[in-house]
User: Fold this.
Amino acid sequence: MSTAPRHGRNHGGVQVVQRVASILGALKNEHDGLSLSQIAARVGLARSTVHRLVAALEEERYVVSASPNGRFRLGPGLASLAQSASRDLTLVIHPFLAQLSRETNETVDLAILEHDHVVFVDQVVGLRRLRAVSAVGAVFPAHCTANGKALLAAYSDEEVARLLPETLEALTPNTVTSRTSLFEELARVRKEGVAYDREEHTLGICAVGAVIGQPASPVAAVTVPLPAQRFYGHEQRLTTTLLGTCREIDAALGA
Assistant:
Protein backbone atom coordinates (compact mmCIF):
# COMPACT_ATOMS: atom_id res chain seq x y z
CA MET A 1 0.00 0.00 0.00
CA SER A 2 1.33 3.41 -0.92
CA THR A 3 2.41 5.72 1.91
CA ALA A 4 2.32 8.87 -0.22
CA PRO A 5 -1.15 10.04 0.93
CA ARG A 6 -0.21 9.56 4.58
CA HIS A 7 2.97 11.58 4.05
CA GLY A 8 0.93 14.30 2.38
CA ARG A 9 -1.49 14.45 5.30
CA ASN A 10 1.37 14.68 7.79
CA HIS A 11 3.02 17.41 5.79
CA GLY A 12 -0.26 19.29 5.61
CA GLY A 13 -0.74 18.93 9.36
CA VAL A 14 2.72 20.34 10.06
CA GLN A 15 1.99 23.23 7.70
CA VAL A 16 -1.24 24.06 9.53
CA VAL A 17 0.56 24.02 12.89
CA GLN A 18 3.26 26.32 11.50
CA ARG A 19 0.64 28.71 10.15
CA VAL A 20 -1.30 28.77 13.41
CA ALA A 21 1.93 29.41 15.33
CA SER A 22 2.82 32.28 13.02
CA ILE A 23 -0.62 33.86 13.52
CA LEU A 24 -0.37 33.60 17.30
CA GLY A 25 3.14 35.02 17.11
CA ALA A 26 1.93 37.96 15.05
CA LEU A 27 -0.67 38.76 17.72
CA LYS A 28 1.82 38.65 20.56
CA ASN A 29 2.04 42.04 22.30
CA GLU A 30 -0.65 43.47 19.99
CA HIS A 31 -3.00 44.39 22.81
CA ASP A 32 -5.25 46.45 20.52
CA GLY A 33 -5.42 43.54 18.11
CA LEU A 34 -4.84 43.21 14.37
CA SER A 35 -7.26 42.96 11.46
CA LEU A 36 -7.32 39.87 9.25
CA SER A 37 -5.57 41.86 6.51
CA GLN A 38 -2.85 42.97 8.92
CA ILE A 39 -2.33 39.42 10.15
CA ALA A 40 -2.18 38.15 6.57
CA ALA A 41 0.47 40.75 5.73
CA ARG A 42 2.50 39.88 8.83
CA VAL A 43 2.56 36.12 8.22
CA GLY A 44 2.58 36.12 4.42
CA LEU A 45 -0.62 34.16 3.92
CA ALA A 46 -3.78 34.74 1.91
CA ARG A 47 -6.50 36.59 3.79
CA SER A 48 -8.92 33.71 3.17
CA THR A 49 -6.47 31.26 4.80
CA VAL A 50 -6.00 33.56 7.78
CA HIS A 51 -9.77 33.96 8.10
CA ARG A 52 -10.26 30.19 8.26
CA LEU A 53 -7.50 29.64 10.82
CA VAL A 54 -8.52 32.59 12.98
CA ALA A 55 -12.12 31.31 13.01
CA ALA A 56 -10.89 27.95 14.31
CA LEU A 57 -8.72 29.65 16.94
CA GLU A 58 -11.67 31.82 17.99
CA GLU A 59 -13.80 28.73 18.64
CA GLU A 60 -11.19 27.55 21.16
CA ARG A 61 -10.87 31.06 22.67
CA TYR A 62 -7.20 31.18 21.65
CA VAL A 63 -8.04 34.46 19.93
CA VAL A 64 -10.93 36.82 20.65
CA SER A 65 -12.43 39.88 19.04
CA ALA A 66 -10.62 43.05 20.06
CA SER A 67 -12.97 45.55 18.44
CA PRO A 68 -16.29 45.76 16.59
CA ASN A 69 -14.46 46.35 13.31
CA GLY A 70 -12.87 42.92 13.08
CA ARG A 71 -9.59 43.13 14.97
CA PHE A 72 -8.37 40.10 16.90
CA ARG A 73 -6.05 39.62 19.86
CA LEU A 74 -4.81 36.66 21.88
CA GLY A 75 -7.56 35.11 24.00
CA PRO A 76 -7.96 33.60 27.47
CA GLY A 77 -7.80 30.07 26.13
CA LEU A 78 -4.03 30.43 25.95
CA ALA A 79 -3.79 31.37 29.63
CA SER A 80 -4.56 27.89 30.94
CA LEU A 81 -2.04 26.39 28.53
CA ALA A 82 0.58 28.92 29.61
CA GLN A 83 -0.07 28.28 33.30
CA SER A 84 0.24 24.53 32.83
CA ALA A 85 3.44 24.90 30.82
CA SER A 86 4.84 27.32 33.39
CA ARG A 87 4.23 24.87 36.23
CA ASP A 88 5.84 22.02 34.30
CA LEU A 89 8.83 24.15 33.32
CA THR A 90 9.32 25.32 36.89
CA LEU A 91 9.51 21.71 38.07
CA VAL A 92 12.27 21.04 35.55
CA ILE A 93 14.17 24.27 36.14
CA HIS A 94 13.95 24.58 39.93
CA PRO A 95 16.74 22.09 40.78
CA PHE A 96 19.12 24.10 38.59
CA LEU A 97 18.13 27.30 40.38
CA ALA A 98 18.87 25.61 43.70
CA GLN A 99 22.24 24.45 42.39
CA LEU A 100 23.10 27.98 41.23
CA SER A 101 22.08 29.37 44.62
CA ARG A 102 24.42 26.93 46.36
CA GLU A 103 27.29 27.75 44.00
CA THR A 104 26.92 31.52 44.43
CA ASN A 105 25.55 31.50 47.98
CA GLU A 106 22.99 34.04 46.74
CA THR A 107 19.30 34.27 45.93
CA VAL A 108 18.31 33.10 42.42
CA ASP A 109 15.17 34.20 40.57
CA LEU A 110 13.26 32.94 37.54
CA ALA A 111 11.14 35.51 35.69
CA ILE A 112 9.10 35.90 32.52
CA LEU A 113 8.29 39.00 30.47
CA GLU A 114 4.76 40.42 30.59
CA HIS A 115 4.61 43.39 28.22
CA ASP A 116 6.87 46.02 29.83
CA HIS A 117 7.35 44.23 33.19
CA VAL A 118 8.91 41.03 34.47
CA VAL A 119 6.99 38.64 36.70
CA PHE A 120 8.89 36.44 39.15
CA VAL A 121 7.67 32.85 38.80
CA ASP A 122 10.17 30.96 40.96
CA GLN A 123 12.86 31.74 43.49
CA VAL A 124 15.49 30.09 45.66
CA VAL A 125 16.33 32.32 48.60
CA GLY A 126 19.98 32.65 49.57
CA LEU A 127 20.98 31.87 53.14
CA ARG A 128 23.03 35.00 53.84
CA ARG A 129 21.55 37.44 56.33
CA LEU A 130 22.22 40.37 54.00
CA ARG A 131 20.56 39.49 50.70
CA ALA A 132 18.35 40.82 47.93
CA VAL A 133 14.65 40.48 48.73
CA SER A 134 11.82 39.87 46.27
CA ALA A 135 9.16 37.16 45.99
CA VAL A 136 7.36 34.87 43.57
CA GLY A 137 4.63 36.95 41.96
CA ALA A 138 6.55 40.21 42.29
CA VAL A 139 6.36 42.50 39.26
CA PHE A 140 9.29 44.78 38.30
CA PRO A 141 9.76 47.15 35.33
CA ALA A 142 11.73 45.46 32.54
CA HIS A 143 13.90 48.43 31.54
CA CYS A 144 15.82 48.64 34.82
CA THR A 145 16.26 45.00 35.82
CA ALA A 146 18.74 42.35 34.72
CA ASN A 147 16.03 39.80 33.93
CA GLY A 148 13.99 42.43 32.09
CA LYS A 149 16.87 43.58 29.91
CA ALA A 150 17.90 39.98 29.21
CA LEU A 151 14.37 39.25 27.96
CA LEU A 152 13.95 42.53 26.07
CA ALA A 153 17.14 41.77 24.14
CA ALA A 154 15.26 39.01 22.31
CA TYR A 155 13.24 41.72 20.54
CA SER A 156 14.26 44.24 17.92
CA ASP A 157 14.59 47.88 18.93
CA GLU A 158 11.33 48.60 17.11
CA GLU A 159 9.50 45.90 19.08
CA VAL A 160 11.03 47.10 22.35
CA ALA A 161 9.89 50.64 21.54
CA ARG A 162 6.32 49.35 21.20
CA LEU A 163 6.55 47.33 24.41
CA LEU A 164 7.87 50.04 26.69
CA PRO A 165 6.05 53.17 27.86
CA GLU A 166 6.97 56.47 26.24
CA THR A 167 8.67 57.66 29.43
CA LEU A 168 11.02 55.26 31.22
CA GLU A 169 10.56 55.69 34.95
CA ALA A 170 13.64 56.49 37.03
CA LEU A 171 13.57 54.33 40.15
CA THR A 172 17.08 55.32 41.24
CA PRO A 173 19.71 57.81 40.01
CA ASN A 174 21.27 54.90 38.09
CA THR A 175 18.15 53.98 36.10
CA VAL A 176 18.59 54.27 32.34
CA THR A 177 15.75 56.49 31.14
CA SER A 178 17.06 57.28 27.65
CA ARG A 179 15.71 54.95 25.00
CA THR A 180 18.89 55.42 22.95
CA SER A 181 21.06 54.36 25.89
CA LEU A 182 18.79 51.40 26.61
CA PHE A 183 18.94 50.23 22.97
CA GLU A 184 22.76 50.46 23.12
CA GLU A 185 22.76 48.32 26.25
CA LEU A 186 20.39 45.78 24.72
CA ALA A 187 22.74 45.50 21.72
CA ARG A 188 25.52 44.58 24.14
CA VAL A 189 23.26 42.04 25.86
CA ARG A 190 22.51 40.39 22.51
CA LYS A 191 26.23 40.14 21.79
CA GLU A 192 27.39 38.96 25.23
CA GLY A 193 24.31 37.01 26.34
CA VAL A 194 24.18 38.59 29.79
CA ALA A 195 22.48 41.62 31.34
CA TYR A 196 23.27 43.62 34.45
CA ASP A 197 21.36 45.74 36.93
CA ARG A 198 23.81 48.12 38.59
CA GLU A 199 21.58 49.58 41.29
CA GLU A 200 19.08 50.64 38.63
CA HIS A 201 15.95 49.22 40.27
CA THR A 202 16.96 49.48 43.93
CA LEU A 203 19.91 51.33 45.43
CA GLY A 204 22.31 48.89 47.04
CA ILE A 205 21.12 45.93 44.95
CA CYS A 206 22.73 44.65 41.74
CA ALA A 207 22.00 41.61 39.59
CA VAL A 208 23.26 39.57 36.68
CA GLY A 209 20.77 37.86 34.35
CA ALA A 210 20.57 35.65 31.27
CA VAL A 211 17.81 33.93 29.33
CA ILE A 212 17.09 30.24 28.96
CA GLY A 213 15.73 28.79 25.74
CA GLN A 214 16.47 30.09 22.27
CA PRO A 215 17.92 33.63 22.33
CA ALA A 216 15.32 34.79 19.80
CA SER A 217 12.40 33.30 21.77
CA PRO A 218 13.49 32.75 25.38
CA VAL A 219 11.43 30.80 27.89
CA ALA A 220 12.43 32.90 30.90
CA ALA A 221 15.36 34.68 32.51
CA VAL A 222 17.49 33.50 35.41
CA THR A 223 19.00 36.17 37.64
CA VAL A 224 21.28 36.37 40.63
CA PRO A 225 20.42 39.52 42.65
CA LEU A 226 22.75 40.49 45.47
CA PRO A 227 23.92 43.41 47.58
CA ALA A 228 26.11 45.84 45.62
CA GLN A 229 29.17 45.24 47.81
CA ARG A 230 29.21 41.58 46.76
CA PHE A 231 28.65 42.41 43.09
CA TYR A 232 31.26 44.98 42.10
CA GLY A 233 34.53 43.28 41.33
CA HIS A 234 32.88 39.85 41.08
CA GLU A 235 30.88 40.33 37.87
CA GLN A 236 32.94 37.87 35.82
CA ARG A 237 32.68 35.06 38.36
CA LEU A 238 28.94 35.56 38.71
CA THR A 239 28.48 35.73 34.94
CA THR A 240 30.47 32.58 34.28
CA THR A 241 28.56 30.62 36.92
CA LEU A 242 25.18 31.91 35.72
CA LEU A 243 25.83 31.16 32.05
CA GLY A 244 27.05 27.67 32.92
CA THR A 245 23.78 26.97 34.74
CA CYS A 246 21.73 28.40 31.87
CA ARG A 247 23.50 26.04 29.45
CA GLU A 248 22.63 23.12 31.70
CA ILE A 249 18.98 24.21 31.82
CA ASP A 250 18.92 24.57 28.02
CA ALA A 251 20.26 21.05 27.68
CA ALA A 252 17.56 19.74 30.03
CA LEU A 253 14.89 21.60 28.04
CA GLY A 254 16.29 20.43 24.72
CA ALA A 255 16.76 24.05 23.63
Summary: Strands lie at 34-35, 63-65, 71-74, 108-114, 117-124, 139-141, 195-198, 205-214, 217-227. The mean pLDDT is 87. The first helix runs from residue 4 to 27. The first strand starts at residue 34 and ends at 35.
